[in-house]
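Worked problem 6 (solution included).
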Amino acid sequence: MESKIFKAYDIRGIYPSQIDEDGVYRIGRATAQHLGAKVVAVGRDVRESSPSLFKELVHGLTNSGADVIDLGLATTPMVYFAAGRLEIDAAISLTASHNPGEYNGMKICLKEAVPVGLSTGLAEIRDLAMSGDFAPAETVGTVREEDIKPAYYSYFASFAELGDRKFQVVIDTANAMGILELPIYEQFAGNVSVINLWNDLTKPFTCHEANPLLLETLDELRAKVKETGSALGMAYDGDADRVGFVDEQGEIIPMDLMTALIAREVLKKKPGSTILYDLRSSRAVKEIIEEHGGVAIECPVGHANIKRMMRDTGAVFAGELSGHYYFEENSVAESSTLTAILLLNLMAESVEPVSEIVAHTKRYVHSGEINSEVSDKDAVLAHLEKKFADGKASRIDGIKIDYPTWWFNVRASNTEPLLRLTLEAETMEEMEEKRDELLAIIRG
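Solution. The predicted structure is:
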């Protein structure tokens, strides 16, 4: 086991060279011991290494005295759902998310889906797992199975309000865990007919990467939507905690603008509520939240940061540029399928196709996130802050500088020698000019 598999928010590495059965056993021992967990729910994805790793994870947890609730195959949102509804102390999703099949890992949370990251316990779990300094347990824990899926399906399907509207949609699950989300759509089959792409769990991770943030992974979905005349396309990532969308013309719906659209639906049911948007999002997101009576608060990037801030501010919904969408209905954790259902509700209320609905939110020209390899990230950030000192600066996450007609954010990667640039302007010309100026500085 290599210490570098412990990331800012999860555990992830190549099997078996970086993470193997012995390492996962140690992580199980360390997790139960450090968290003082007496009951731990564990769900797993469908990777080839998952059964043997699950066995040793359970072995480690029970040898530290914890009882285990085996959730079986489960998406990460299902594990968060279990964490909010079962009498447990912690929950673990055994998954490497969108990473290719040779990877595996874990996402750990406490009861109510409170995340465990490097600053909230994962560093201590890492150090204990690496040292092997485990305290003897008085008793060995037990294992029992519980299928959370029927309750999960029934609960989230109940949010559909489609009236007599009928839609055909294309869903790309990339032969990954999003396949387990599909039964929800079957519960409103009278309204929604589904064309599936890559939904064979017997051949996991054998098609394109399960990562809608990589726009090229959406090419087949875009083509299928246009070919079939479907109203919407959606793509789940590997563990189904992220989702991306394309409109009826096969055009990608920007993930930050999805936050604005879903905020509209949320605010109809919860007027005046607080909604978070990550600082890379278009200015239009804040504007639309406020136009619909919500309180819009900018937040840093990263699910642990956002979930903590949601609890601190009482926010009911949050959205990220990366396609994570967080709802109080799932213990302020991700719910990709609830995002899709609320978008379908919005479409059912409108006489316009989804492309026109989205067009109303496209008020500015956004660059998307651009990565640059940089050896001294702090020096570059300091230089940028000095050079653009005449703008309005904030340090919520990296540095963000606002001007009347444009803004930019540069933030450091948690795991790689990268700086990530995002900017937006009122015109394409200004966006391209400022983008090129900033990239010359960052890469120079």
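Discussion: Residues 175 and 203 are 6 Å apart (CA to CA).
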